[in-house]
Queue: 2 jobs
Job 1
Amino acid sequence: MSENRLFLPVVLGTNRKNRQSENVARWVFGKMNGREEIETRLFDVRDFDLPRDDYGQEIKDDFPEWRDAVIRADGLVIVTPEYNHGYPGVLKSVLDLLLKEYIHKPVAFVGVSAQVWGGTRVIEACLPMVRELGLVSTFTDLNFPRVQTLFDENGKLLDAAYEKRAEGFLDELVWMSRALRWGRENLPSKYHQP
Ligand SMILES: Cc1cc2nc3c(=O)[nH]c(=O)nc-3n(C[C@H](O)[C@H](O)[C@H](O)COP(=O)(O)O)c2cc1C
């Protein structure tokens, strides 16, 4: 069974002090760890020592753990806050470190916001960007509106309704991950070795 496990890293997409998205990312990461078909790892954009004067694939070898994780990954989960209806620049900087490593892999979005939309607008804003990376988005997002009311001071999620939502979110990501892994392994493409 172990070779059938899916490796699905989670990216926490903001380095902001007092970020609420950290509670969300840790909760989603815990849910993924609880599923036997998933192996995961939490990447925090705060841990990337990005240079001030360089960008993109040219510097990917300075971030070998991220590079190797994405090469091995069957898909990604991106936890992103909504900043002026867009995504944090640091998330884009981290994603831009790689390109061909993402191709034909699914990405599932978790949106986080202070207002009522739960990051729906930032997820929409992410779609053209991840498409250019070759990632394939799932259609079952997880949204955390009014995130400042959802967790207690210990990071415990206060709304039990998220349990079922998270299961549906992960079920679809697992399906997409298996389907696309089968495709990468069995269907020739100029973008990867079958
Ligand atoms: C620069 C900036 C822009 C923001 N823009 C929005 C926004 O467009 N819509 C919204 O609902 N919340 C907005 N917020 C609030 C965040 O969604 C809120 O801080 C939430 O907790 C998620 O971000 P966090 O992980 O940084 O805490 C903004 C916050 C910052 C710092």
Note: The chain has five helices and eight strands.
Job 2
Amino acid sequence: MNIKEYTEANRAAWNEVIPIHRKSSKKNLKTEFSKKGFSVLDNIETPILLNIGIKNRKIAQLCCNDGRELLSMINLGAESGTGFDISDEAIKDADNLKIISGAKCEFIRTDVYEIESKYNNSFDLVYISIGAINWLPDIDKFFSIASRLLKKNGKFFIYEMHPATFMLPAENEELKEDEDPFTIKYSYFSKDPWISDEGIDYVGKRKYKAKTTYEFVHTTSEIINSLISNNIKIELFNEYSHDVSTCFGHIENDKKVPLSFILVGQKE
Ligand SMILES: C[S@@+](CC[C@H](N)C(=O)[O-])C[C@H]1O[C@@H](n2cnc3c(N)ncnc32)[C@H](O)[C@@H]1O
């Protein structure tokens, strides 16, 4: 399969799961975003974002889903936001939350690999978070797009699941007698897509007969090297023992394996 075939298959799967996610949590978000200043950003990323500067800045979020993180940054003082996501259903939710919050934002339904060149050199900050890069078959191409969207000296911010977690069984996986949650089950270096039809309802954790999804593991060195080769100077790289994914809460803070990371860079 080529990149487009993977991303279109994943688009169908995201369109399928978002109505399922809505049943679990969206009502609450609608109420929350009607309040001024509401933010879903946690107390790890918030001070880092405020420190690198979001106030009065133009922000792009890649793989923005329902836009709650971007809308939160507007509530924390950003000037405007543009969110890009491949899912038609996610963009519908983002547009609804935008109306409720009154934020100066636009949400664009597009494959990130096809973001139009009119957005080049437009943003002070490109923000990527939790459960985004595993959907992208080509990490180098993805970061080249992040880089072209940034103005010179613009900031790059990513808060993601740590690549090391993909070696371990997730919370919902059954363990064999000789396995424990730290048993290395999967290759860190595998380039084969992770193919599944078990569904992606990480919100309500419902099982359903799902459309096939294709996910990809990108190692830490691949992430760092492709940022460097795309003109992003790395300024901060933190690894954490807390889970950001809802899949590894059972080993959170055991301090054996890094479960998440934040990386900040600047376009040169
Ligand atoms: C888990 S969400 C990550 C966003 C946010 N951090 C969250 O937790 O909702 C993953 C998002 O990536 C989007 N996505 C997957 N592949 C994409 C692609 N090729 N282009 C744009 N968005 C994509 C999906 O539609 C989904 O909304």
Note: The longest strand covers residues 150-161.
